[in-house]
Amino acid sequence: MNNFDFQNPTKILFGKGQIATLSKEIPENAKVLMLYGGGSIKTNGIYNQVKTALANFKVLEFGGIPANPEYAVLMDALKVIKSENITFLLAVGGGSVIDGTKFLSAAAVYKGEDPWNILKNSERTMKGMPFGSVLTLPATGSEMNSSAVITRRETKEKLAMGGPGLFPVFSILDPEVVQSIPEKQIANGLADAFTHVMEQYLTYPVGGMLQDRFSESILQTLIEVAPKIMKNPADYNAAANFMWSCTMALNGLIQKGVPSDWATHMMGHELTALFGIDHARTLAIIAPSHYTYNFENKKEKLAQYAERVWGVTEGTLDEKAKAGIEKTKAFYNSLGIKTSLSEYTKDYEGTAEIISKRFTDRGWKGLGERQDVTPSDVEKIVMMAY
């Protein structure tokens, strides 16, 4: 097992009725900017719960953060933060709203001229404006980590950022919010969390026995609850396990002491930037091709995954590993998620070359757990995903 450091300072308040405890988690004299997305919180009761809990605070609102948090929109929110002397940010939404809030947390205290440089230059935020979250859409794990991804529509870029100053102070996870989520978004959440785990697990063995078992248990839980939560989002037990699995998939725990491979994520981000495809669905497009292209590097863990998670006990190591890839595609398909780029757009010719060039232009010489997936390899993987 590799050496590691682990610290996650985010306080989690989990369970029904926890939104009512919100006022206890925010500093008494805080001036709060409440950030949210398209307004669904105003129809499902979450908005009223939050406003009631914050009745004794000075609260301003900023809505309209899109599904891929857009830089231009966030810059409008930054103007509000500075002109109104905001001291605390509250994200009420899913991963996109929370990611956007993380950018604002960093930008609010940024000393440079252009906040885009935080993303463009991968500048780590050591201390940002404090913020909390009320999770409304389980998927990304952003409620308990320090990473974010921001889109800039004018340049068709989607870039990541992070740093130890971008952990939420607290996050409220009430599984009852799941019952109002559309089926497509639940499917996205399941696929997103599933792939997050795979990116920290499907690498090569280093003797991280407990980390492997943690990962496998999250995958097994998602597989078990998927049909239940898709059929009945009001099933509280299924919703609770779905929500907690999404958080545990990307709060840093399962990646400690083991190699990680975020190549699928990096390629997926480009598909979203170019075509606007939902993030989770870009992962489902890229992952099977990535595993197939890098089969020799991954086959030991692929076979272990097939055996432990899917119960594949027959065949050689290579046969089990290939079965693991097929089981993964079948899982995405069971959620109603397609795994070929051509099923999302007819304008896919040349996509592989564009993405490869972007990676080259950014100086990314190698991705993956061994840092050996070159821009040329990326081009081939994306082409395989057509």
Descriptive report:
With 386 residues, this protein is of the alpha/beta class. It folds into 2 domains: 11-176, Rossmann fold, CATH 3.40.50; 182-384, Dehydroquinate synthase-like, alpha domain (Up-down Bundle), CATH 1.20.1090.10. The protein is 46% helix and 11% strand. The protein is built from 13 helices and 8 strands. It has helices at 46-53, 71-83, 95-107, 116-120, 183-201, 209-231, 236-249, 263-275, 279-293, 295-310, 317-334, 351-361, 375-384; strands spanning 11-14, 31-35, 58-62, 88-93, 131-135, 147-152, 157-162, 170-173. The protein has a 6-stranded parallel beta sheet, with helices on one face. Helix 5 (183-201) packs antiparallel against helix 6 (209-231), helix 6 (209-231) packs across helix 10 and helix 12 runs antiparallel to helix 13. It is globular and about 65 Å long. The two termini are 37 Å apart. The mean pLDDT is 96.
